[in-house]
Fold this protein.
Amino acid sequence: MSEPLVVVEGLSIQAPTRLLIRDVGLIVRPRRITALVGPSGAGKSLTARASMGVLDVIPGLVAGSLRYPALGPQDWFQGVVGGGERAQRRLLEATRSLRGAYVSYSPQAASSALNPGRTIGWQLAIAIGRRVEAPASVGAEVRSLLAEVGLPARAAAALPAELSGGMAQRAALAIAIAPKPRLVIADEPETGLDPVLRRSVIELMIQVCQVHQAGLLLISHHQSTVDRIADDVVVLPAPPAGEVAA
Amino acid sequence: MKGRLLRWPYAAVALLAILALGWAAATAPVHLPAPEVDFAYAGPLELPPFGADHRGRPLLDYARQGAWVVALPAMVAGLLVMFMAVGGGLLACLGGGWARSAVQIASEVVGSLPRMVVILVVALLVPRDDRSLLPMAIAWALLAAPGAMDEAASVAERLGGTRFVEALRAHGFSASRIFGWHVVALNLRPVVVRQGAEVMMQVVFLEIALSYLSVVEDQPSFTHPDSMMSWADLLYQGYRSIVLDVPTTHVLALGLALISLVAVVSLSIGAAARAR
Amino acid sequence: MITRPTWTDEAPVVELIDLHKRFHRAGAWPWSPRQEVHAVAGVDLRIAPGEVVALVGQSGSGKTTVSRIVLGLEEPSAGEVRLEGQRWSGLAEAQRRAQRVHYQYVPQDAMGALDPQQSALEHIEETLKVLAGLPRAEAREKAAEMLSRLGLGSRLHALPREMSGGEQRRVTIARVLALSPRLVVADEPTSGLDPDRRESVLEALIANLPPRAACILVTHDMSEARGWCHRVLAMIAGRVIEEVDLSVSEPTHPYARVLFDPWSAPLPRGLLADQGCPYRPDCPLVTAEVAHLCATTVPSLQPLPRGPDGQRVACHALTASSSSPPPSSPPSSSPSPAPTP
Amino acid sequence: MVRVLAALALPVLVPTIITLLIWSLPGDPASLICPAESCGSTEVLSARWNLDQGPQGFLSAWLGDAVQGDLGRSWRLQQGVQVNELIGDALPNTLILLALALIPLTIGTLRAALGPLPRGFGPVIQVLGLVPALVLALVAAAVVELRWGSASFGDAASWARLIAGALVLGLADGALSGAVGGTRALFEAEARQRYVGIALLRGEGVLGNTLPNVAPALAGQVRGRVLHLLSGAVIVEAILRIDGVGDLLWGGTLLQDFGVVLASATIFALISSALLLLQAMAEVLIALVVRRSPDLGEGAGA
């Protein structure tokens, strides 16, 4: 169980006109909080998405390896490096069953990240359905997940538009943790929240990950947050090739 | 920038075609000239520019009379729709909720009436001694207007509706600047002009369809006086070249060309006014 | 650290006198009843020429309402707004319009404030032509210059939908600054932006303000305001609870300290008291000595005993004459230095 | 809700509008409908349609009869025949025509929902959609007449006319291009929403997420298309000589057969209101599905 959850090595991603990421490495260990920080345009989100097997830049992956040692020795980037769009799409399909049950994603600005046309309960049920072992009662699971993130049970019947920003962030966290993943990737969960909500969301996230014994990869911009909570810190270098952020 | 450079060719095409049709309508003879048997079935080369019908009457006069029949009603219908669509868009910027739902309900109810049915009822009631396309064109425009207003209103809503207006007002712009320039001229224009052009085209096609159906039944058309010929007559006479093997293919070609011209005009107007 | 000169001894640009605003608001849930909200409950504020003041608070604290009232986008329920000595609240829109050129607004939602059919250059050009009365060629030239100053020199012909959030924000800022306004109110000018881009947008705004312009910056993050303003006003429940110059001292009010660094103190649960000090339920400073006062009397802004000049706080515990020196020195673990321009 | 009300009002609305039109125009109602020189004495007409009893009298008499299934008798189209019989003969043909025309539309909609069209396919459909129904109907009529002869109304020829008419309806006037383009645009706009990308990151599919959100708009579009078919049906039936309600309406208008026009217009309104009801039902169903939460057992959902 002490095998790392994700190991990314030598990751380089190429956009049509410039190199987005050069030679980036990343290790996330079980039950630890790893913070991914770096200046603007360093490719934090891109790195996190690549570590889930999601590559959507073309020509895209030009070097690197992606392994999930806790699952096996396989290098998922094998055959994808330099393979262009088609190989990346194949990887997307191949890793699809892992997303959710093994590595899950908690978005920033949750209100626009939830499906506006489906109730929270429905979205939770879908996420629970991605578990490796189906639970005895989906309804009971939905309720316990909502309680865990501090939402009332009636929130299951609410549409995302009926929730406030802080509640939506909680719901998104519940959806991310619902498939019982081994690793949660949280992409700037603090964005757009005021300081009080920011801290409570982070604290909740840490608590939930501890309860479910999941590792946490936190992309963050707030140095104060990272200083206080991270066990490991991965710092991405400034964007290669002197690219100036707009 | 790129959008603008590509816009003027469309505008030029539309303008030229409209001028041509307008000229044709303005100079249309009230009666077709007397038949000249020598020119019966004359092709475009024997009797330029378009040739003659089975009795030797020049097709140019058919085309001009047909233009006369549709020109005014189509224009009126198009302008009516544009006017109402602008109103719908402005209402969405000003009135907020209830105005928007009023437009929505109107477009829902009016949109549920099969247009052709209403048009035929209007046709039934058009006085027989003063036949004209105009009542039907106006009816068509009124049927099309709620939908156009609804679309304009949703454009205004995507603009941000009252928030957009408030931001510009806080910036210091006058109401006429905000509504006249930003809302109508810049943002509603594409959809409003396209809707108007579409309705113009539909009215022309409507006239052709109604006239054609009358001609087939050997009945006077609802849309124009007996002395006038519609473009539908070109289609009808030309149609016989296919079925009865009469040498009138050039008549059919002219009819189809005029229909395509109208479609092209409508599309170019829409393209010339399109959003960036 | 901000280096703008201020003219504090001159007549203020903005003067808010006991401002109140009440309105009705729907609850967070559709089934909760509508409630009357006292969004602004007695705000007094004077802003000198050249001064940049930040209004900080969580959502619902009334900071945005204050900024909207200052610009006359909403009418106060009570109290008065004076801009450059002239009464501003209660005027008809027609009377205000000529003056609006001088008092400008950077809205929170840049995409909703820009015309989707106008390029960046056309936005500024129109502003200069119509509102500043410049001839077309000159307006165009100045517009391009203004955009270049804000780092949009290569994006002159981009339409709003082709721009990133930061670029859109810069266009709204350029449009405002092009008029050389005497007052700029920026409502969360960085909201919705990638965290990395916030700093540069704020810099674009503050560094390019006309020298004598006053500026109100509304934000929910005090650490973000740090370095960009002369004074910070922290708000809760429509009241200002602390006024502080972050360049000389740190906030002392427990709530203001949470806004400044959420990890520095226990998190408030967000319960607000109806009577007395609104922050009382979450306040760690309530002692037996002041408890009765806190429960009955709304604290007013008072200078701290031995505090730096200009720092005022609305807290019975901190300002009571008998109280010991303020219990809070700046947090021991040094927060990371905020990047400075 | 508005939809249901509109649906219920529509069949009454059409005769009401007609009544209002008749009485808002100057002149004697009967001679307006059919001038004396073509229909002879207007008194017969007046008495027959209760036109002499004012708008309310006429409308209530007609509606009352209509509800009891009596649509009156044809005046000139087929003199003396019950309009009921005419409609009864014509309606099946119209419904078959509409159903057949829906086939290309349904295929187009489904195809567009599944994914982008192959390159080069779009422009072809678009150009086809620009062709007015009249022109395409003429082509179809020519084909049918050349193949079966103009006088032939045998079984094969009738079916050929029906199928040709359905094809015309399904393709012309932007029917197919609208269905394909409109559906595609709906799905593409939805797929651009942020939540779709996030769902992908969680390993979920795209269609399962977008379909429920797109469905109401899609239902509206489909109804709009069918409504459009109703208008087109008049032209297509008249040109291809399909013995349908549209042809009846046209013939009635041409020969000033008031009873036939009134009846067939009302039939069209009925079809349209049925469509509205269907759409309202679809929306309710969709809303039920969207609002459906997993069964939380006791103590939840309150």
About this structure: Residues 322-341 of chain C have pLDDT under 50 and may be disordered. Chains C and D do not touch (no CB pair under 8 Å). The longest helix of chain C spans residues 136-149. The two ends of chain C are 7 Å apart (CA to CA).
